[in-house]
Every structure is written in C-alpha cells, then in structure tokens.
Amino acid sequence: MWVLGGAVAVTVCWAVALLLVDEKRRRLPDLLTLPAAAGAAFGAAVTDPILLLGGLGWAGLYLLLGVSFGGVGGGDVKLGLSLGILAAAAGGTAAWFVAVLGASVVTVLRGALTRRKAVAHGPSMLLSTAFAVGMWFGA
C-alpha cells in the first residue's frame, strides 16, 4: 500500500508545481506536461488501452478549440492528455465529463470572481480532475 501513497505524493507535488507555474507565468512547461502525458499514455496502453480515449478526447477537444478559437495553449492540450486518462481510469465516462466540464466552470468562476478577462486554465483542470477522481474513490 505504501507504493500507492508514494504515487499519490508524487502526483500531488507535480500538480502543485504545475499550478504554481501556470498561475505565475500563465504557461504549462513541457518539462512537466510531456513526461506526464507520455507516462499516462504508456500506462494506459499497457494496462487498459481504452483509457487512451479519455486522454485523446480531452486533448483533442482542446486542440480543436485552440485552433478554432484560440485561448487554449499547447500546455493545456498536453495536460488534457494525462488528466483525461486519469479521470477515465478513476470513474470512466462520468468522471471524464465531470473533469472536463468542471475545468471550464472553475475557469469561468475564477475569471468572474477576480474580474480578469484571462486566467490560467491549468489550475482549473487540475482541481476539477482531483474532484472527479475523489468522487469515485470516496475521498
């Protein structure tokens, strides 16, 4: 059981680092997003390949939105890959929808509360995914 605790600790540290960098620089660095995306994709491919659809779905949605309307960066796309896989692994389609829709709701609320036209989206993605995963694990 200690292995799971270690994985959770590493994941929390990674998420906090992403949150802090995105809030400060409004950028999610490749150094933090690429290894997570590759690791999540590899893990899904060798354990349950259907989970890749969660990651590809979120990343693809953001890629489409970014190309069509702007406002979505490459870091959000790469983060969507790893978080989409995580949400799908935690609770399937329902958890995936909670994470994806929740990220948008949290970003809109943050913008309204701070009265800023633009806020970092990565923290909202992380928060909504943590909520979705927590819902399915009873945390």
Describe the structure.
It is a single chain. By secondary structure, this protein is an all-alpha fold. The chain has one domain (2-137). It contains five helices and no strands. It has helices spanning 2-25, 30-47, 52-69, 74-114, 122-137. The mean pLDDT is 92.
Instruction: Return Rg in Å.
Output: 14 Å
Strand content: under 5%
Distance between the termini: 16 Å
Say how many strands there are. 0
Largest sheet: none
The number of helical elements comes to 5
SSE-based structural type: mainly alpha
Low-confidence stretches: none
The mean pLDDT is: 92
Percent of residues in helices comes to over 70%
- Taken from the alpha-carbon principal axes, the silhouette is globular
What order do the helices and strands follow?
HHHHH
List keywords for this structure.
globular, 0% strand, 139 residues, mainly alpha, membrane, hydrolase
Short summary of the structure?
The protein has helices spanning 2-25, 30-47, 52-69, 74-114, 122-137. The chain has 139 residues and is mainly alpha-helical.
